[in-house]
Amino acid sequence: MPDAAPLLSIRNLVTRFRSVERGKWITAVDDVSITLAPGEMVGLVGESGCGKSTLGRSIVGLEQPQSGSVIYDGVDLSSLSGRMLRDKRRAIQYVFQDPYASLNDRQTIGETIAEALIIIGVADKTVQARRIQTLLDQVGLPASLAERYPRELSGGQRQRVAIARSLAVEPRVLICDEPVSALDLSIRAQVMNLFLKLHKELGVACLFIAHDLALVRQATSRTYVMYLGKIIEEGRSDELYARPSHPYTQALLASIPSADPRVEAHRPPPSIFGDIPSPTNPPSGCRFRTRCPQATEICASAPPQAVRLTPTHSARCVIAGELYRTKAGADLAQAVPA
């Protein structure tokens, strides 16, 4: 847990969808609790379909949770309505994955950003123009782009516009849903550096949802690992990446490619086998057990409880403590000269 009091607390959130199979439901987010401190950048990682985006959309109200709480600045948003809810929600903005789908091609860039300004009461055209110029400058775009349409921009430029639109209402929290995954590899680093710059300059807290574990490792102070709707490991990023203590987290980190071809040539085969189980009928006990190489009978009996490994690191696995000690012993052995 971060030292500062949470700015955003998600408590026991559950979000379900009706399945195409009659009478069945998909629990995309299942009893999830996470926190975000003021000015903190936190990572949320996991395979496609694990519920990361649904969690992000539930936080900002794009999906309606069945139970649980979204608490912003000490206020449970489910207790608010009307203008009070809008005022609070304004502080939590969303940056979508696809910059080609998140902007209206019938509006100029200036009109797109002005729409956000009008919502917060900035009606004066001169003030709008000045604010739009400032926002475009903040995201590294020339003011002349205000007169152009999204279809005239590259993917990287469009994503910068989407970020500028999110910043227009002066949020304190950004939910960033795979914001660089749809971009060319050469552009990803530029946009990621922009996020880091804005995070530092504006003090905006970010929940950074991503597939790229190496990116999350470099950018975030803490990381949550999600699997089939559940948070299965969480902790300070440096601790979690150094000593992953859930078999799923270990497998994810082992899959990160290396720039060294000699390391890649000796990469062990994947330790995860099989496909993600159906969310309409998840496995009993530990949801990862059907794909886990270290699963035993006890893993099917009941959902695993969180094992506290350090004050800032925990994992939901019956052998988490053993895995942590094994990794710690291996690190110690490498550090001691033969």
Automatic annotation (TrEMBL):
Stretches of the chain forming a coiled coil according to its record: none
Record SUPFAM superfamilies: P-loop containing nucleoside triphosphate hydrolases
Signal sequence extent: none
InterPro entries: AAA+_ATPase (IPR003593), ABC_transp_ATP-bind (IPR050319), ABC_transporter-like_ATP-bd (IPR003439), ABC_transporter-like_CS (IPR017871), Oligopep_ABC_C (IPR013563), P-loop_NTPase (IPR027417)
Molecular function GO terms recorded: ATP binding
Pfam families named among the record's database cross-references: ABC_tran, oligo_HPY
Subcellular compartments: Cell inner membrane
Domain of life: Bacteria
Principal subcellular localization: membrane
Membrane-topology annotation of the record: Peripheral membrane protein
UniProt entry keywords in alphabetical sequence: ATP-binding, Nucleotide-binding, Transport
PROSITE patterns: ABC_TRANSPORTER_1, ABC_TRANSPORTER_2
Family: Belongs to the ABC transporter superfamily.
Protein name, UniProt field: ABC transporter ATP-binding protein
Source organism of this protein record: Mesorhizobium opportunistum
